[in-house]
Write the C-alpha cells for this entry.
Amino acid sequence: MRVLSGIQPTGRFHWGNYFGAIQQYIALQGNEQSFYFIADLHALTTVREPLALREYVWDAALDLLALGLDPSQATLFRQSDVPEVTELMWLLMTVTQFSLLEKCTSYKDKVAKGISADAGLFTYPVLMAADILLYDSDVVPVGADQIQHLEVTRDIAQRFNHTYGAECLHLPTARVLKEGAKVPGTDGEKMSKSYGNTIEIFEAEKPLRKKIMSIKTDSLPLEAVKDPDSCSVFALYQLFASPEQQAILAARYRAGGMGYGEAKQAVFDASMAYFQRAREKRAELVANPTYVEGVLQAGAIKARAKGKEVLKRVRQACGLGAHAG
Ligand code: ADP
Ligand code: TRP
C-alpha cells in the first residue's frame, strides 16, 4: 500500500502544523511504501522570493527529519526533483473541466485573501492530482481543508480512465487527519501563518518565551478563579502535558491565586521538554547538510523511478511517443 502526502514549504512549521498534520504523517510512515514530499512547486503560487523559498524547503526537510521522519522507513523528496510530475499535470489538464476547478473553495478563499489569481493558483488542484496519481498512491493523509482536492483528483483520474482506458490511473482514497487538535494561536484564533499568530516548533528559546508570554488571555486578577476550558494557554498546555499534569494545572486555575504568567511558564517548560529530542536532532542535522541533501536526493531517485514507470504508461495510453513501426 502506498501512502503519500505533501506539505507546502511556505514558512517555518508551527505547533498547528505539527499537531494537525506532521505528527500524524510521521505516525503512518511504517507503511510499506510511504512517500512524503515538500511541495515546492505548489509553494511558488504564494512565495515569490527565491532565497526565502530555498530556506523554507531546507527548513521543512530539517524539521521533518528532526521530528522523526525516518528515511529508512519513508521516502522524503522535493516535489520539483521529479519533473515527471509537471508533464503528468499537463496530460491531466487536457481532461480537466474548467468548471471543476471553479468549484474549488481553496482557490476562492486564497483569491479573497488577496493572493494573485494566476493560472498556477487556479490549476493548483491539477498539480496536486498529478502528485498523487504519478505514484499510484492508495492512501493520502490530508487535513479536512484538502478533501475537496482529493475529490478533484479522483474525478480527474476517472475522466482520464474513461477516455483512455479503465486501468490507466489508480484511484486514491483520502485519509482525513483527526480534527481534534485545532491549535489556537497567540491571539486565541486558529494558529495560522496567514494570521501572524504562530509559535514555531523550532523557535529559539528567547523569542519562544516571548511569544508564549504574549498569548492573549482575559484580564482577571491573580486571585480570581479561572476557567481552564476557555483559555488558549491551557489548550496549548494540553498538547504537551500528561493527563495528570493537566489535571494539576486545571485545579490551580479553578482554585484562584494563580496568574496567567505562571500558566504560560508551564506551557514554555512543557513545550521545551516535549521537543527537546527533536531540537537536539535538528541541531545535528544543521551541522550535517550533506546528509540531509543526500536523503532528499536518494528520495527523489526512488520516487522518480516509480513516477517514470507510471508516466510511461500514461503517455502510451494517450498516444504519445515513438511510432510503433
Ligand atoms: P497555515 O494555516 O499556517 O498556512 P497550512 O495551511 O500550510 O498552515 O497547514 C498545513 C497543515 O497543518 C494542514 O494539514 C493543516 O490542517 C494543519 N494545520 C495548520 N494550522 C493548524 C492548526 N491551528 N490546528 C490544527 N492543524 C493545523
Ligand atoms: N495542498 C496540500 C496542502 O496545502 C499540499 C499538497 C500538495 C498535497 N500536493 C499534495 C497533499 C498531494 C497531499 C497530496 O496541505
About this structure: The pocket of tryptophan (ligand 2) is lined by residues 4-8, 39, 42, 128, 131-132, 140, 142, 146 (CB under 6 Å).
